[in-house]
## 1
Amino acid sequence: MTVTDYKSVAAQKREARDQAFLEKWLIPEEKLPSADVKDVLSWPLKSGYLTGEEITITESTYNEMHEKIKCKEWSAYQIASAFCHRASIAHQLVNCLSEVFFVDGLKQAKELDEYYEKTNKLKGPFHGLPISLKDNLNVKGQATSIGFVGLAFNPKEYETDSLIVSKLREMGAVFCFKTNVPVAMMMPESTNHIYGNTVSPFNRGTTSGGSSGGECALGPLLGRCYLGIGSDIGGSLRIPASLQNLFTLRPSSGRFTTYGSRSGLPGLESVASVNGPISTTMENLEFYCENLINHGKQWLDDSKCLEVPWRDVEVPEKLTIAILRDDGVVKPYPAIDRALKHVTESLELQGHEVIDWNPLHHERLTNLIGSFFLSDGGEHCKDLLNLSGEPVFDYMKPYETSADLPVSKLWDLHSERTKLCNEYLAQWNKTCEKTSSGNPIDAIIMPVSPYSGVGVGKFRYIGYTAVFNALDWAAGTVPVTRVDKALDMKDETYMPRNPMDAQTYEEYDVDEVEGCAVSVQVVCKKLQEEKVVKIMKNVSEIIGTSDYWSRS
Amino acid sequence: MTVTDYKSVAAQKREARDQAFLEKWLIPEEKLPSADVKDVLSWPLKSGYLTGEEITITESTYNEMHEKIKCKEWSAYQIASAFCHRASIAHQLVNCLSEVFFVDGLKQAKELDEYYEKTNKLKGPFHGLPISLKDNLNVKGQATSIGFVGLAFNPKEYETDSLIVSKLREMGAVFCFKTNVPVAMMMPESTNHIYGNTVSPFNRGTTSGGSSGGECALGPLLGRCYLGIGSDIGGSLRIPASLQNLFTLRPSSGRFTTYGSRSGLPGLESVASVNGPISTTMENLEFYCENLINHGKQWLDDSKCLEVPWRDVEVPEKLTIAILRDDGVVKPYPAIDRALKHVTESLELQGHEVIDWNPLHHERLTNLIGSFFLSDGGEHCKDLLNLSGEPVFDYMKPYETSADLPVSKLWDLHSERTKLCNEYLAQWNKTCEKTSSGNPIDAIIMPVSPYSGVGVGKFRYIGYTAVFNALDWAAGTVPVTRVDKALDMKDETYMPRNPMDAQTYEEYDVDEVEGCAVSVQVVCKKLQEEKVVKIMKNVSEIIGTSDYWSRS
């Protein structure tokens, strides 16, 4: 295709999406907040476009909606309608949706109502609960472009759902749209030549992050009803969740099925892309994990899934937490340091024990992950880019210039990784020498990235998240605070330790990121999803952010 | 090194091993059965070299030995001594040992006795139980040549145990020797330029198989006390176990740690080599699984291990089994067909349900596994061969001629495999349409290989086992019978379907394999190790081989 071709295909696709919105819900351009209004978090509620009922519904958690459906106070249709209306408004504020199929979602909800009416039985634990989907998840009847112009209509409609979508659909979940992602889902910002950039509702001058950036820009605007599914191969759930103060869980591979979803790096197995939930409430997140795993039994249909139920685990009343404030490569921005101090003090104040964490092998493990991403010499990405002839974003340049590695070299990288991972695990065990209980720590708490908000084009370092993709450990994010100009001034005395550190430091401009979200990462070991979720809950209660997204 | 060099290094290594045997136990050449005595199964017991007590000890199971140790009727030293003496005899019959460290094992046993004497506590569930080790497992103070002359003294002594060895050692297990393997553990016969071939005690004119061939040749000669650890990447536990009528379990990856053991294909992750137990009794095998997993907690120290306990599972009283008799590629020899008919009839006679199994994608999955093995272009193998300049066995020629694949092609093979595996799983689910219960089958029972015994150099096809390495499913072997000249005549009317089938058929010579072992494979799904073990037990009881290795 020529240059005009890729632009015209992208325009057609954009046009098709825009046509799928419902006229009645579209807000005239002039009634929307102007571009210089950065913080739009409360706009959907305050704008007057939502009815009281729509607000009540979308401010309800999964358990609350489930109860209301069960007692027939609310219909699935009512919920889907409120959900779509509020998502429609959100989209106009931050450009978060990719595929829009409100009509299908409402039809699906209606059928669920009819089913319940007729049988007096709910379809399953997700009956009538709306779930937002990242673009890479295939939905029957919809396209999946994952940011490539060449995939915008290729195929125009998928014939089957991704397995996780069909499992949830069987259990009654309702799907109304999908959300924007970066090209190949391999950039830390959700932008592409079809839909452009998805910005953060905390500060529309900053990026929503990536690759689950469409999801995470939407979440805060959708309220407490929000639960979405994203994916994470180097931080793609945790990075955008942290830039929007959402709760997310990056599970170990095998807990949630990824079968039948579209990948930007298909066939890469050296590091597994995983699916995980993102939400405004821990309640929704737990509901999702427990019901999807225990009722969905994904291992019956995905040979890579592990037959491990969602288990009830105990955590000690007195937690022992290792804190990492700086990985020694790129120093986090002041607000993140402030957040970690706050977490530390709050933990200690309530009698929990805090020790330091050493970022053993973080830099090398991050580099290894990068090598795995690029190990096919970008061949698969280039093939997809070549479908349309679209240009390559700066973030993706390494996919153009890397070599298609010989497998013999890949094996050597694998061997190195295995050794480093076991040394990392040994360091965890060795903490028993430092804790007062004599047991190893319960979790690590640390930054998600160096960025407490970041302007478009400046997200350069994923070392704080990627290390746990290399390890395949369970990790989540917990909201802490927002950037405050008065508190988060640049430390003018700081001496950067390397060029990346220097650039990151130089690019910090507190005015640019005013009001941005500040979260921390909670990390447990492989397959300890239940434990990390419990500790995320505890920590958010301890620091007072468990109701971060309640209206009160 | 020159040709003489590799031969002289091999001779030195052989000499060092031979020197490690205890003089008092060595049987003069002329007292050993002559080479034309093929079946030596009962020779150790009948030869008169073992004392009555040594026989009683070595004919005891793990539970029996554990009880005797606990009540101080037997010491760990007595057991280790009987174990070593009988292994010494076995080695003289079939050439099964690679590293011999009887003295260390006896010392270890003595220390355990002293510990028990002093503390009145057992070291752990394996206190005083001897475990045989495949050569690839590192033992502190010993070498690990895995069939390469260049590794014979490189290093001369490992400084640490493989993780599985140290875990078992901490729990009181005793190690006295390691067993022979093929070069790189990548041939289906246990031969190499250091130690030569390990033959089957059922018929010394036939191979013991590989790669856990040293283990499996030893097992039948050691009696009911025998438990060894082997490994399996394409059939390396199941093939030799079936050629010696032993029980083995090939677990899914992540159940048993492989960390810190020496690999012939280091860094290969497209298909995982797994560790598993081999034994003369299901009792020992279960003892090992339960205690190693639940007490050893390998996941604490191996980042690839899954935190999944050994679980108590229920299997239906009335089993539903799918039988595969022929994979459509290479037809099994007559005795295997006879064994499967016997299993089928026995199951049906006792009210169990039997349906047919379709070998969906078996050929392609086997070819994919082969591509993964060779995907580094044999670079790692060649490096190890070049250390000594030793020649390449015919079985290993593909490692000399394959290309070092670009990673982009490897990704495509991964994607294909993922799809085929899920289709295979779907076929399992679909059996519910054929079963009287309306549930899917409980297990597949099928051949382990086409061979009911095979002469040296003629084991050509691993399709019956490799498919489950591609799937990473749980599979085991159960002894059924032995080859009988009168029953297992060549079917002269058979029309082979392809060159491999033709060659296999042509090479069948019932006289050559008279008396050889005939086992079947029992297969359950991924992570269903507990279920496959339970069904192996049930099946062996149903067909009357649960006491196959008892003296009576």
## 2
Amino acid sequence: MASSALQISMVVSSRSSDFLGSHSFTATNSLRSRNVSLPGRMPGVCRCVSAPSAEETAFKTKVARNANMAKLQAGYLFPELARRRSAHMSKYPDAKVISLGIGDTTEPIPDDITSAMAMRAHSLGTFEGYSGYGAEQGDKKLRANIALTYYKDLGIEETDIFVSDGAKCDISRLQLLFGSQVKMAVQDPSYPAYVDSSVIMGQTGLFQKDIEKYANIEYMRCVPENDFFPDLSSISQADVIYFCSPNNPTGSTATRDQLTQLVQFAKDNGSIIVFDSAYAMYISDDSPRSIYEIPGAKEVAIEISSFSKYAGFTGVRLGWTVVPKELLFADGFPVAKDFNRIVSTCFNGASNIAQAGGLACLSPAGLKAMQNTINFYKENTKIIVDTFTSLGFNVYGGKNAPYVWVQFPGRSSWDVFTEILEKGHVVITPGSGFGPGGESFIRVSAFGHRENILEAAKRIKQLYQ
Amino acid sequence: MASSALQISMVVSSRSSDFLGSHSFTATNSLRSRNVSLPGRMPGVCRCVSAPSAEETAFKTKVARNANMAKLQAGYLFPELARRRSAHMSKYPDAKVISLGIGDTTEPIPDDITSAMAMRAHSLGTFEGYSGYGAEQGDKKLRANIALTYYKDLGIEETDIFVSDGAKCDISRLQLLFGSQVKMAVQDPSYPAYVDSSVIMGQTGLFQKDIEKYANIEYMRCVPENDFFPDLSSISQADVIYFCSPNNPTGSTATRDQLTQLVQFAKDNGSIIVFDSAYAMYISDDSPRSIYEIPGAKEVAIEISSFSKYAGFTGVRLGWTVVPKELLFADGFPVAKDFNRIVSTCFNGASNIAQAGGLACLSPAGLKAMQNTINFYKENTKIIVDTFTSLGFNVYGGKNAPYVWVQFPGRSSWDVFTEILEKGHVVITPGSGFGPGGESFIRVSAFGHRENILEAAKRIKQLYQ
């Protein structure tokens, strides 16, 4: 029973540990087994046939499981991390485990922003302030402010902006938009939601265990040898190219020249770029913060972004997607019109309270407060970069991103993960969890309270000096 | 140009009128036309070739438009209503138009609930109160409270509940779960999102204009002659049956006996029921409020619900879906495990502030306050029912739902819509907008301030007495 319960919890994909994983399924199964294997205890009932297994007695519908869901691999990254962390804490109950694994913000949301959300909540209790359904595309004023703040002089208008409940949700809505017949290209390593949502949508073949890749996806290898920018000439076909800069997990940021190459590639091949700029405000140098800084990008690119890592909105849920009206399908139909239909049918707008928070984020005080929070995390990043650099590691990322990418040549990412957890009680993320191109790297997140970052740095120094 | 702009705005599907519909596309097109047709005005440029059309000059990607998106019909119901309302207001600028069309709540959210949300917003600004990513499945305490409040003694547990940003969003996630290979059955008339999300997912054939139905959907006719309960024996195949009770739009509520038949049908045929109970708290009699009141339903049914119409959360965004662990695909795989994977990959949890509001809704004070709001809308419903009844119409619904379904035998729903708008300045919803089974009916929503409901009743009496 223990091993079957474990198997079940491995298949369940969740970042959190409190879901219906092993516990509740096990409970149900054992209840069922008891019901059938101990008939003598049921008053007035005597079954003289041999007891069937729980599997045999359970009612099954005739609806076939979606074959695309069955393609998904069991060991989804973040729940596996959570499972290993829990196991470690059981083994060392007195250890103070520090998590620099999942990229979750830790610092309070600035007051100007929380006050605006609280005020909006209160106003919903008044006749004057109450409002019901908002536009699925988001509040007009927020859309206009996003356009003005992040896309001024780039030709992106209010009507090109779709406010959402976060980039992860919009990635999935974009997959619905494109449907099952497109072929995707993705940076390797990359944020797992791009690939998993593509699998769910039916765009891929089966997972090929030997190469750790799904069939019918173009994996664009991004490693130090190519400056984390893919060799575009090696791509055979790519309808939709997912590209994240500053990158999660490597922390690398594409230069203007590199993004110009990417846009030119899309133009030459008729591809659509989905550009994930969720970490753009972490950029310190003159790397482009938006794909639309590249001339011609409006005709080939969608951009997704988020307030999560700027304002600590990971739990508040607010993001946006830009679909320029200039972006057209092969038949000339505007992509924005189909995306609008997706948003109208499959979504009902972000929470009005979160949107009030978004407006406050974009006020002068809000922008300053967000930048202060970002600067705090960037100081953390510097501590992490300096720690690994001083130990002689090859360290990448960190400069324009809250992620540090550290190379352990010739070693397995999971082995390094285990070593740092076992000996330092620090959780990081094994690079191979982001795709085969991440093997022999680890990702260290800079989201954390300062004292935790300093303590983690101390332990890592002790471990590797 | 005017007619092409109109066409564009008809294709765009949005409830709201402030999107990129006719206006921005028209502007873009005319800008493009000007650029190419008036070259003489561009300083230093002289083009001596004949001017190509905007269509010809625009860059197109080579990505094919998703064929499923192209199947969607142009005249999505609610934007069409908004368009006609706008046209009417331009024609009669002094008229006080009353909208009983779209089912949007109008009364303020009770104080206990808004205060809880404001307090949560403020706490996010503190070190003690801040939290980042929540569980994708929702806050554990909220899941437990939903199970306790709405499913006590029905065998539904905390782990069966998935908290969401609303029922409409979960309908779309359920489509992703089931994939493109299932055949759906749906009440006719029904809430448009069921059918449209099925079309987007690729489950249907083309729209058949003569019968106003998509191919490969089972439309289950619900009319007064069958007490708004479908003839289940006429269904040839149905993998997933969408069933809404109390019903939107007819306001009818299935009896215990009818739901027992439905569950038995699903058992006999191996179908999965998606039961939409978003109006359950409007039930006054002993009709079941949950499908799980029917024995055996846990093995064949999913239930979706929402705080929208109870607490005025249409803009706050909070709902839930119940996927019992007993519900299995044909191969024995639990549906809940795949839905958990969908939620984990395509969603990041409802806003933590909205979830704090949900917890307050389920406190004793919150439940009482929600019931007061519901009672207010039900008083509105009675005014509407009495108005049409006194005029001699056949009136359905209203008793257990905020919707009144009025029959105009032999007349087109859109003609009646136009008549009531033109002569009474009142917006209702034409029944045929919910499917061919709604023809010759209108839906009147009871969501409105009391004075507007009374004024609308007065005008309708003047019109039809």
